């Protein structure tokens, strides 16, 4: 079961990317589009290079190509919704909601990919994603009640799209390599990012940025780490059942919380995080559910 440590590694790596994404979007770049332009350029170049070195197999079925490229496009839309929310929400709240996608993967994988889940696996998935609503809820002191944050619906749509993307990727990975899948994903991500952002006004914003070279350097580092995270994720999907791989990758919020807590203690201006005693307890309970679900899943294996 080599896919288990690979998926865990992917979760730890992509958590770093989430932290850097949040910092760059909320602190370094004047707009989301200004961030997407250099990030898209990096992904497009790397994706095309990977596809040049690892071309899609000759005679690949049309349905496989549709699944590969379709899942990549759906994934990019989900990622864009998530990144948009990072302009005004804490990353330690965003990621648990987005990472409810394993439940949608599990639901879709049974009829589409003929995966079989026992009651233990279903329980593990449910426990893993149950913290999302908890971490998105907040107490309204004026109305004396609990309200769900406005970003919740957007993040749930992002989660559903990421879940659907994993299903399409898994179908394609039964016929192409994880290098092929990464190349397609990176090329599509880069092309769509640039489609939205490559315009004179955005280029002007980037040219006028304070500490532009630092921001661009951090972006290059971030997207390089993201490349490693994507590759590890697709490798794990290739090796194991997509529902369980997705559940393990869904532990990313635990690592995001740990990274954010440490950074907020030592470098409080890096992120827009606010850690009161109640907030910390709520996030720990939510993330504890995630870890408990994954533990149940791995013990079941």
Main attributes?
two-stranded antiparallel sheet, 2 strands
Please describe what this structure looks like.
The protein has 301 residues and is mostly helical. Helices cover 78% and strands 3% of the residues. A two-stranded antiparallel sheet has the order 1-2.
Order of H and E elements: HHHHHHHEEHHHHHHH
Shape: globular
Helix vs. strand class = mainly alpha
Instruction: Estimate percent helicity.
Output: over 70%
| Uncertain spans | 139-148
Major beta sheet summary: 2 strands, antiparallel
Q: How many strands appear in the DSSP assignment?
A: 2
Query: Average pLDDT value?
Result: 86
Q: What is the radius of gyration computed over CA atoms, rounded to a whole number of angstroms?
A: 19 Å
List the helices and strands and how they pair.
Layout: H1 3-28, H2 32-53, H3 62-85, H4 91-98, H5 101-113, H6 119-129, H7 131-136, E1 137-140, E2 145-148, H8 151-173, H9 178-197, H10 200-207, H11 212-239, H12 242-249, H13 252-266, H14 277-300
Antiparallel strand pairs: 1-2
Helix pairs in contact: 1-11, 1-12, 1-13, 2-9, 2-11, 3-8, 3-9, 4-13, 5-6, 5-8, 5-12, 6-14, 9-11, 11-12
